[in-house]
Amino acid sequence: MSSALRVLRVRRHVVSSEFQRTKLQAMFEAFDADGNGYLEEADFVALADRWGRLPRVREGSELAARVDGVLKGWWQHLSATVDTDRDGRIDMDDLLAMVDLLPTIPEAVTATADTIFDAVDENADGRISRGEHQRLVDTWHGRPVETGGSFDRLDQDADGYLSRPEFAALWTQFWTSDDPAEPGNVMCGPIGAG
Fold first, then answer.
1. CATH, residue 157
2. Number of domains comprising the chain
3. H helices present in the chain, as ranges
């Protein structure tokens, strides 16, 4: 058994906070394309298809291949790491168990952030505008989502954009933070936007 899997089995007994559960519930629901209460490989294929509709993610492009690889790769990581009964289904507790492991693999989180950044940086100017952030949120959820003041909370230097380093730090906070005060928690929309 790999050391990561041993760590996971120990950590699965740790109960995630109510804040993390609430924050990630909307993401779980967005990933669960067929709404059956479980994540399955087909859900990640549907998620990759949704992201493939972004203007910069042209079919056959290098970016399209990266987006497809990252999103479908999440399924591979989830199924290999937390689907301990090997039934091809991941529930919310399984997702939270995987999120508990993310601080131990920061390079994977950063690589995902870079790919998502490139996909939503529609004009390729190296920064994410308010409108591009809105497209990120809408694409994740598969429908328009009211983001309120989320972007203003993310844009801590108030320059109207998120740079690649800012985005990567906020992305990591979204997936790993258990501190409601950290701005990255609203990266994918307001908490509870489901």
1. 1.10.238.10
2. 1
3. 3-11, 18-31, 41-51, 62-81, 92-101, 106-120, 130-141, 150-154, 164-176
- Phi and psi torsions of 39, nearest 5°: -95, 130
Identity of the residue numbered 68: D
d(CA 47, CA 141): 9
Q: Taken in order 85, 106, 70, 166, is the CA torsion positive or negative?
A: positive
- Is residue 84 in a domain? yes
**In 26-118, which ranges are E strands?**
none
Q: What is the pTM assigned to this prediction?
A: 0.83
Residue 12's pLDDT band (boundaries 50, 70, 90)? very low
Residue 109 domain flag? yes
Q: Which helix (H) or strand (E) holds 94?
A: helix 92-101
The dihedral region occupied by 37, where left means phi > 0, alpha psi between -120 and 50, and beta the remainder, is: left
Query: Is 93 domain-assigned?
Result: yes
Q: Is the pLDDT of residue 5 over 90?
A: no
